């Protein structure tokens, strides 16, 4: 497996058809024996962000005990035990626990994946995100996130389920002219699926793509082994492009910092020269012009030399990505079927090209900032 896996679900205090409730979820996460029969050798989880599972349980139960909702005639009443009050997200990495424990390189990969996932979760759920834990007593390396909407007096967890929110919005808006109940329900289901795809796309863009993971696996799209291997190569190349862009950004910041320091020293020297030159009547302006011109020219020349190499590489990467995308589109046009594979592969190539182009823009912007010049205009001739 080399594709992303992220799953969300909300739970109530009442057991569902599969026997799952908030208590069961907390018991399973903390590895209570009654809820861990599926694990051969249960081990306590590791909290990698926020508070531990038992603290989340305490927080959730206290909030549920005082949560109120509007009842008949506007009177407040306690929320129903069937209301969803806990939201969870499970994310899994392609590496197994055994692989990670036996390979420092794979450990570094999953650590990077965890950091990106936590950052994404924080952007998705804000203060409602209470905890992220890791389990290593099962085959696959995976983490669990717990979201409790304590800021909401009604403690409604389904507001964090994009599919449910989208479906309810369509149903609340009602039927369109000439639309019957069956058509309305079909449209609401389509909205549900679209919202869930957007959620998965968000995870792919923020986490899976920088980690070299594909959006979907081969079975879902009926890919051949060669097609699947080709897509994995594309994903790995895209990860390297993202890493390169981050490296270039870091270099750009260092260039800017060093250049500003040098420029400050030059301005100080120039100020001293101007003081001396102003004493000489008639040639003060000429001296200032010569001194400033020489110093500015020297700094610009040095910085452009340092940026030239990386900028050329970035432009070559962008050009290579563009040609690869064109070849892929031409190849896919000759294949019948695989409509879903075509859509996702072309999107992945476009993302690769976008990253490479972004790298070029970032380098150019960093160079302009270092030289205190205006931002370059695409397509404009070089100065």
UniProtKB/TrEMBL annotation:
Coiled-coil ranges from the UniProt annotation: 304-331
Keywords assigned: Coiled coil
Protein name as annotated: 2-keto-4-pentenoate hydratase
Organism: Pseudorhizobium flavum
